[in-house]
Structure formats: C-alpha cells, structure tokens
Specification:
mainly alpha; Growth Hormone, Chain: A; 2 domains; 17 helices; 83% helix; disordered C terminus
Length: 413
C-alpha cells in the first residue's frame, strides 16, 4: 500500500494501534516478574492473572462492538483507551494482588480499542479492499511487538519495574488524544439512531449458529489462534529445551528474543508488502488456505529441527502464514453479516480469539510436558484438518452485501 495514496484516517488508525501495542508489549516481559518479586505470587496465580485479561475481553468484546455500532466508533475508542491507561496506573500503584487482578480485568473489559479500530477500517474501506486495510492492524501489531518487549525490559532494568507501566499509560493517553483530535466519526447520526432502534443486538447465539458461513469463519479463527497460543505460551521453554539445548543462559535468552523479533519483522513485511500483492492475484479464501499451509510448514520446521538457524526459518514461515491467514478471516467475517453490525461481528470474532487463547494457554504446559515439540505437531495437524473448511467457506460465503431485509427474513425462519 502506497503511503502517499493511503487514506489519512487509515494512517491514523495504524499509528493508534502501533502506540497501543507498543504500550501493551512493553509490560509483557515485566508484569510476570513484577508480580513475582513484589507480591511473591505463585506461577499458577501469575498465569491466572494473564488469563483474567483474556476472559474479560472475551465477555466484553461483542458488547463494545455493539456499542460502537450504536453510539459511534470514536467515543467507544476513546473510552476504551482511557480504561487501558487507568489499568496501567493501577498496576504501578497496586498494593495487593486483588488490585493487580482488578487492573487486568479492567483492561480486558475496556480492551475493545482494537476491535473498534478494525470496525472503523471496515467503515471507510470498500469490501474488496478490507483484507488489505485490516492487514495494517496486524502490521502495527508486529511493529509494536518488535520494539515493545525490549523497551519494557530496558526501562525496567534502568529505572525500576513500575516505569514501563507509567510509560504504557502515557502511550494510551496519547492514543486518546490522537483519536479525539484526528479521527472523524464514520457512522452518521442517522445510522447510529437506526442501529440503536434495532433492539438487543442482531448477533445472539441463535443468530450466530444459524449463520453457516460465520460459523465456519469463527471455527477457522479459533483454530488459527489456538496454534498461535500454543506457540506463544511454550516458545521460550521450547527454545531452551530444543533449539538452544547446551548453550549458555545468556545465548539462549538472546536467541529466543531474536527469533521472536524475526516473527515481528516478518509480520510487518507480510502486511505491508506481501499481502497486498496476494490480494491482487487471488481471492480471499485462497489466501486463507495459503496462510494455513505456510503456517503449517513453519510449525513443522519447529517440530523436526533442533538448530537455532533452522528455527529462524520456522519463525519466518509461521509469521508469514499467520499474516496471510488472519486479515482475510476478519474481512470474511464482516461479509457474512449486514453492514450495520460490522462492529458487533468483529467483537464476536475477538471473543473467539480470546477464548482460543485462554484454552490453548491453559493446556499448552501439559502438552509441552509430554513432549517439547508436541504443541507444534498439534498445530500442523490442526492446520491440515481445517483446510477442507476453507473450501466449504469459499462455496458458502455471500458474494454480495447482506441487506437488513435478508436478516429480517432469516430471523423469521
């Protein structure tokens, strides 16, 4: 995507997501150690602290998406980011374990800023360009996670463990200001009023189950995130046990960090360079299938190699596959419902991501204990087994926008 031809609002959303991810990524390497050293929390409780965020996000995401449909993207984006800023300050000021949990739950409840940003993108982007535009969010994710963890660790080491949290709160505050002063509302007052009059949401569980293409998209999303959750939660342990077995602790820590940096850099390259070219050549569902295959190759490399140099190829293929897989899945989700509930369906999609993350993180340790490479072998198997679903999705997904009348008819059936 040429920056000179990019919609100014897309660039602003990119910056908003990047700053948000930079702040969130800064606290990732710091929070577990902060909880351990300051509050003497057990490892099992620390992992529950992380899970509390995703559980709160899973519950709240559809409601935040629905609120953005009814009251506008910008107000909900601002409110959610204010909640994130407050949560980081609460962590820095925490005097008890209960306050730590309260802070993470608050951030999870108000953590719909990414969902609303994605809904904003779908508002201003034609259907045929949504995949490419949503890819910018994943590029911002990658960029934030390239710099965030290293910056958080550096700041914590130089200035103390609470500094990254205060800086993350400042980053969240900066996003609030950027949103308020630079983004125009995409939903007209008439659209918001119409959405408020539609009742208690169009995407109840009954509507979701009855929406066959959406069910397929959500299942593919769950499987895609499940493999990512297995990798994220075990990669450091896998690196020490397999890739860097026999190396010193310093080399192991540095090597694992560099492999994760490769993932972030590949993600950026995929979204800014490779995905736009793929969209010009192939349809959405073919790109999803390609992403599943390439990701499976990356996981297979991790499952069969024991060399850090070959492991770098695993990082590249895995990140490339995820980068091709997730944006078209999000775009496909918005095509399975009428435009008036784009925000809500993205919220439902994010809930599935959160639930998948919770489950995969919870079982990853047990799977890893059986074999250090088993999480990656399971990821390969899941990718292969879900490939036929992509063909089913290709046949089932609507080619034309779904109208309100169509939804009303389906409600009566």
């Amino acid at each position: 995507m040429n920056p000179k031809q990019m919609d100014r609002r897309l660039l602003t959303i990119f910056l908003i997501v990047f700053v948000n991810m930079l702040g969130a990524a800064m606290v990732l390497p710091v929070l577990p150690l902060y909880a351990l050293r300051r509050f003497e929390m057990e490892p099992q409780v620390i992992t529950l602290l992380g899970a509390s965020f995703f559980l709160a996000q899973a519950i709240a995401s559809p409601y935040l998406g629905r609120l953005s449909d009814r009251y506008g993207r910008v107000p909900i984006l601002i409110i959610s980011q204010i909640g994130t800023a407050i949560s980081f300050v609460m962590i820095a000021q925490a005097q008890s374990v209960a306050m730590l949990f309260a802070a993470r739950i608050l951030d999870g409840i108000t953590g719909g800023n990414i969902i609303v940003a994605q809904a904003y993108i779908t508002d201003i982007t034609p259907r045929e360009k949504r995949t490419q535009s949503l890819g910018l969010v994943f590029a911002a994710f990658g960029l934030g996670f390239v710099f965030g963890p290293a910056l958080g660790g550096l700041l914590s080491g130089l200035f103390g463990p609470t500094v990254p949290f205060y800086l993350a709160a400042l980053a969240a505050t900066a996003v609030v200001l950027m949103t308020y002063f630079t983004l125009d509302e995409t939903l007209s007052p008439e659209q918001r009023q119409q959405n408020r009059q539609r009742g208690s949401g169009q995407l109840s569980l009954r509507h979701i189950v009855a929406n066959y293409p959406l069910v397929i998209v959500l299942l593919l999303t769950f499987v895609g995130q499940f493999a990512l959750g297995l990798l994220q939660s075990t990669f450091a342990l896998y690196g020490a046990a397999v890739l860097f077995a026999g190396y010193t602790q310093q080399i192991t820590d540095l090597g694992i960090g560099l492999l994760l940096t490769v993932v972030g850099v590949t993600q950026i390259i995929t979204q800014l360079m490779l995905l736009p070219r793929a969209i010009k050549r192939w349809n959405e569902t073919l790109i999803i299938a390609l992403g599943l295959v390439i990701r499976a190759v990356g996981l297979l490399i991790f499952a069969v190699v024991a060399s850090p140099w070959l492991g770098a190829f695993g990082s590249v293929f895995f990140a490339l596959g995820m980068g091709l897989l997730m944006p078209p899945l999000q775009s496909a989700a918005t095509r399975t419902v009428e435009d008036e509930v784009r925000g809500e369906v993205l919220g439902v999609n994010q809930s599935v991501v959160s639930i998948s993350t919770i489950i995969s993180t919870a079982v990853a340790g047990t799977i890893f204990a059986l074999s250090p490479v088993l999480p990656y072998e399971i990821g390969v198997l899941l990718s292969i087994l879900t490939l036929p679903l992509v063909w089913v999705l290709h046949k089932a997904i609507p080619t034309e926008p779904i109208t309100s009348r169509a939804t009303a008819v389906s409600d009566q059936m």
